[in-house]
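Quick one before lunch.
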Amino acid sequence: VTVYLVGAGPGHPELITVRGAALLGRAEVVVHDRLIGRGLLDLAPAGAEVVDVGKLPGGPPSQDGINALLVEHGRRGREVVRLKGGDPFVFGRGGEEAEALSAAGVPFEVVPGVTSATAAPGAAGIPVTHRGLSTSVTVVTGRVGDPSSPGVDWEALARAGGTLVVLMGMSERARIASALLVAGRDPATPVAVVHWATTGDQRVVRTTLSDLPAVDLPSPSTIVIGEVAALDVGAGMPPG
Ligand code: SAH
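Model of the S-adenosyl-L-homocysteine complex:
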């Protein structure tokens, strides 16, 4: 195996898997994007080539450009760690990278990670399911342009009830709230927004669905919608 698609976890440097940390510790090339916990890159050997694809000269490359970079390094037989925030297969475009490597005949392995979809609520003391309150959790992207587009069926989500976890949703929060309200979700539905969960920069804002548009937290933030968002059962992990 030459290319490892490794989940870095939500931000805390100790929330990478043991396998992910071991692979990072012997990587020859590390290709990572912006949302990687500080300190994680310290695990890479001093001589490793570290490529931040969020910040290459000339601007961030396209997904095709990243795929090509992985294929190129992989073909040279180098130990490549493609470090991705959270889990590589949850809105991380890891699937596309796997397909590109597979098509190019480059051997690769996927190392799962702790996804922010559960870790961010958890770090705020919010269990995404809770007996008597929520029997389901749906993880959805907020980056859909127009939430009434066929990309995400907000009406069906509103009807289904349960917990909604929205990733990449802050810039569209007003449209998401309004789509859910129009579809009949209660304006008083509890909402929590968790910014930079598990790190020293973590911030949690509690509100309601009708007041979600007023929450102004930058990326990366996870929006939790549903009865569980009012809970704080405690989390207790010191920030990374
Ligand atoms: N593959 C990642 C998700 C990538 S999409 C995973 O499994 O976690 C990026 C989005 O994830 C961000 O816009 C934000 O909504 C969420 N996110 C990532 N890290 C986060 C963190 N530390 N705290 C809160 N939300 C986070």
